[in-house]
Every structure is written in structure tokens, then in C-alpha cells.
């Protein structure tokens, strides 16, 4: 506020540059609905305790309700000279209802107010992001179900390693994302305590009821220590760390989408809606959305770094530095939410090329482990079997053959335990189906994992088919592979 509204101690206005430098309303106005809900709960509680008159509470609650409508309709005139969201709302309230507005701040400080607002904003943002993760899980799980029979090479070191199912790979992404959701919801549960009543730092002399405001605002309880409550921002670090993990996962998924849609891999084609052309090269169809998701991860890592460095070394309790917590938190949520949305659309509409995955299995010796495992079943120790298989790979390479191309006598030249049944063992379908331990790629195991995942999604209230359809997942009858 530049109008000496800090009260009697001040004779001069805040320097104009200092006012610009220190205002936060340009970004913390995003807290407005929570700020108003917090104020309404606080006013009602003060009324119930006899600190405010019934008439004043009535005026405050009505006035705040009108302001909320104005803000939501985009009609509220934010004034950066009133520093932050709290002062904007309070001053608009006072202009509207007069003296009663000036009583609202009784027993409260902006320090416990902003801590309360931030927790409320963050918990609702966690819910939004968790819902977006769930939508991506719906789409991925439907795509996995459609493609349960497609085989592809699994990779280590980006070298073809062993045959797996595309669906198993898609469910691996789901496992990563479900952990992200879990971390977000863990943090959400821990943060859901009300700081309101902690005052500036040393609580208040008024006979307030902290539990009443906590309950009214949907908190599970109240914070323990007033000094900690106004100084604590580690709930934000936790949440943004969870978002960072998610962003890292989204970047890893995106990188695979970029790779798989190259001519070199050719495992998939992203739809026109999620690719762009080149201004110069007419043949190009670039996976820009996946690349951007991969790139935006950097912002989220930056947001986490900003928060951690912001808090490092701050003494108790509130310090103005902490105002800087909001932009990185908002940005981390906005970025991850946008990435989740774009990836959901990209994955819903992509076409998978089953025959390219299948032909990639014919090269690269992804069946070498089968050869070794086969010998083990014939009583050969695994280390010797591994050695024999390695020699056969070298032999096949020299003669420009695959392992399945080798004749029985060529195989037996390395080990006499080979017989005709080896050819069946080398078949990728056999190789995958033999991996029927829980968590493995055999069809029944993938089916089990898929059913379990979709069961969890349904428990969380999701209509999987409806979500998938809303993102354009091809329905039965549409071509889903080529
Ligand atoms: N805008 C401030 C923030 O976000 C609100 C709390 C200000 N408190 C204070 N004592 N200056 O941190």
C-alpha cells in the first residue's frame, strides 16, 4: 500500500520502485477464493466466540461472498498498490461494508493467513494433478489392453535386450505414474493441517477456536506450533519434489515417444493433432509435443531448486523471502498439468506399428538369453551356458545369420545338449510366455497387472472407457495398429 496505510508509524509512502518490487498480488491473486473462504471461516468463528457481533459477521460474510462472485467473474479490479491478495480483499471489503471490514483481521496476521491459503490452494492443486495422472492411466491402460498381443524388444543401454510386450512397457509407464500420484497424495495428507490461529508468530490473545476454522475449511486438524506454522514451507518442497519426479517420468516417456516415432525405430506414429511439420522440409512430421514435455521438465526442476534455495538458512519465523514461494509452486503445477494433458492426448491418438516391433525382434539377438536358459534346463550351469550363447552370437554375426538361422549341427558344435526343441524356445512368443512370474511380460501376468490397475482406477471413481473415449482412444472396430 502506498497510501501510508501501514498505520501511524509511517510518514512517507513506499518508494514507487519498492512498491513494484515487493507487490505479490500480480501472482498471489490465484489464492483469492481460498483467502475468502479462510476469512469467512475466521469471521464466523470470531462471531461464535463473541469477539465479533452477529451483525458484523453478517456484513463480513455477505461482503466477502459478493467479492468472491466479482473475482470469479473477472470483474474485480486488482490493485498492485495494495501489495497482495489479502490486502486487496480486505480493503475492497472495507470500502464496501465500512468499519466491520476493519474488524475481520482481529486475532489474525497475514502470516497465518497466507500459510492457510497456500495449504488450501496446494491441496486442491494436488487433487487436480492426481486426477490428470488418473486420466493418463486410463488412456495408457486402455491402449495396453488393445495391444496386449503386440511383442516388441525391451531395451537396456538402448540396445535390444529381450522380447517383451508393448502392453508391459505401457504398464511400466503406469507404474511410474502411479507412484507419482501416491507421493503427491502422501504430501497432500501431511499438509492438510490448519495454521490459522498462529497469528504473526506467537498466536493470539483472543479466545479463538482453531478447530472450528480448521473443520470448516476442510483441514484434518491444526498445526502444533505457531512459530513453525508461519515459517513452514516444507510442504511445498515435498509437493514440488513429487511434481519433479512426475515431470522426470514424463520426460522419460516423451523421450521414448520421440525415439519410437523415428524412422529408425518406426514403432509408432503420433497423430497429426500432436505433431508439427517443418517450414522447410515437406516430408517432416515432428514429435514437438513430446519434445516440449521432455524439455519442460527443466522448468519443474528449476522450480524445486528455487524453493529449496529460498528456504535454506531462513531463521524462524516468517521472512518476506517466503513470498517468493508462490511462482515456483504455481509454475510446477501448471507445467506438470499441461504436460499430463498433452501426453494423454498424444498417447490416446498414436498408432502403434506392431509389425515393425515384431521385425525388430528378429534382429539384435534378443533370443540369446533363451539359448542360455535352454542349456540351463539341460543341466548346464548358467555361467557356461551364457558363454556358449555368447560364442554362438559371435558365430552368427560372422556368418550374417540370426540364432534361429543356425542349423542344429552348428548349434551342437558349441554344445551337444541342443536338440530340435531349441527352435521353439527361440521363438519370441515362447520367450515372452515363459516369463510368467508376477511382474513379468507373459500375457497372463500382463493381464493380471492391467486388471489390477483398472480396478484401482475404478475404485477411485473413474469411468475408464469414457475417459479414453474423451481423449480419442480408438474404439473397437477402429484400426489401432498398422
Ligand atoms: N504477501 C505475503 C506473502 O506472500 C503475505 C504475508 C506478508 N506478511 C508480512 N509480514 N509482510 O508472504
Description of the molecule:
61% of the residues lie in helices and 4% in strands. The chain is built from 21 helices and 6 strands. Strand 1 (151-156) and strand 2 form a beta hairpin. It starts with 15 loop residues before the first helix and ends in a 12-residue tail after the last helix. 40% of the residues are buried. The mean pLDDT is 95. The chain binds arginine. Residues 24, 28, 84, 110-111, 114, 318, 320, 322-323 line the site of arginine.
Features:
Ribonucleotide Reductase Protein R1, domain 1; mainly alpha; Fumarase C, Chain B, domain 1; two-stranded antiparallel ribbon; 482 residues; binds arginine; 21 helices; 6 strands; two-stranded parallel sheet; Fumarase C, Chain A, domain 2
Amino acid at each position: 500500500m502506498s497510501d501510508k496505510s501501514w498505520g501511524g508509524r509511517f510518514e512517507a509512502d513506499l518508494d514507487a520502485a519498492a512498491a513494484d518490487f515487493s507487490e505479490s498480488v500480480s501472482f498471489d491473486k490465484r489464492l483469492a477464493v481460498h483467502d475468502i473462504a479462510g476469512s469467512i471461516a475466521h469471521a464466523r468463528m470470531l462471531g461464535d466466540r463473541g469477539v465479533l457481533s452477529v451483525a458484523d459477521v453478517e456484513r463480513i460474510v455477505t461482503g466477502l461472498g459478493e467479492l468472491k462472485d466479482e473475482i470469479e467473474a473477472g470483474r474485480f479490479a486488482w490493485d498492485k498498490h495494495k501489495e497482495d491478495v489479502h490486502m486487496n480483499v480486505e480493503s475492497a471489503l472495507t470500502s464496501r461494508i465500512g468499519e466491520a471490514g476493519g474488524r475481520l483481521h482481529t486475532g489474525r496476521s497475514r502470516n497465518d493467513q497466507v500459510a492457510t491459503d497456500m495449504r488450501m490452494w496446494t491441496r486442491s492443486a494436488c487433487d487436480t494433478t492426481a486426477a490428470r495422472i488418473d486420466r493418463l492411466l486410463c488412456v495408457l491402460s486402455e491402449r495396453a489392453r488393445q495391444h496386449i498381443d503386440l511383442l516388441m524388444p525391451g531395451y537396456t543401454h538402448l540396445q535390444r535386450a529381450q522380447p517383451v510386450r508393448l502392453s508391459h512397457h505401457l504398464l511400466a509407464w503406469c507404474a511410474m505414474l502411479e507412484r507419482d500420484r501416491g507421493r503427491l497424495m502422501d504430501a497432500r495428507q501431511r499438509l492438510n493441517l490448519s495454521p490459522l490461529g498462529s497469528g504473526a508468530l506467537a498466536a493470539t490473545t483472543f479466545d479463538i477456536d482453531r478447530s472450528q476454522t480448521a473443520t470448516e475449511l476442510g483441514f484434518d486438524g491444526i498445526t502444533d506450533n505457531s512459530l513453525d506454522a508461519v515459517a513452514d514451507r516444507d510442504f511445498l518442497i515435498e509437493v514440488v519434489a513429487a511434481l519433479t519426479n512426475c515431470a522426470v517420468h514424463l520426460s522419460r516417456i516423451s523421450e521414448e515417444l520421440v525415439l519410437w516415432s523415428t524412422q529408425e525405430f518406426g514403432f509408432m506414429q503420433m497423430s497429426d493433432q500432436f505433431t508439427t511439420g517443418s517450414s522447410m522440409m515437406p516430408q517432416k512430421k515432428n514429435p514437438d509435443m513430446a519434445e516440449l514435455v521432455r524439455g519442460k521438465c527443466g522448468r519443474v526442476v528449476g522450480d524445486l531448486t528455487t524453493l529449496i534455495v529460498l528456504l535454506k538458512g531462513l531463521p524462524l519465523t516468517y521472512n518476506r523471502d517466503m513470498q517468493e514461494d508462490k511462482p515456483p509452486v504455481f509454475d510446477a503445477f501448471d507445467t506438470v498439468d499441461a504436460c499430463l494433458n498433452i501426453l494423454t492426448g498424444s498417447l490416446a491418438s498414436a498408432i502403434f506399428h506392431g509389425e515393425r516391433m515384431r521385425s525388430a525382434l528378429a534382429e539384435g539377438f534378443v533370443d540369446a538369453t533363451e539359448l542360455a536358459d535352454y542349456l540351463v534346463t539341460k543341466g548346464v550351469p548358467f555361467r557356461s551356458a551364457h558363454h556358449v550363447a555368447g560364442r554362438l552370437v559371435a558365430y552368427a554375426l560372422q556368418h550374417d545369420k540370426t540364432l534361429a538361422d543356425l542349423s542344429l549341427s552348428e548349434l551342437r558344435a558349441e554344445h551337444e545338449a541342443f536338440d530340435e526343441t531349441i527352435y521353439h524356445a527361440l521363438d519370441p512368443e515362447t520367450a515372452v510366455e515363459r516369463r510368467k512370474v508376477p511382474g513379468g511380460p507373459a500375457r497372463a501376468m500382463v493381464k493380471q497387472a492391467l486388471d489390477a490397475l483398472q480396478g484401482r482406477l475404478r475404485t477411485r471413481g473413474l469411468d475408464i472407457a469414457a475417459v479414453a473415449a474423451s481423449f480419442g482412444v480408438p474404439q473397437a472396430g477402429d484400426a489401432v495398429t498398422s
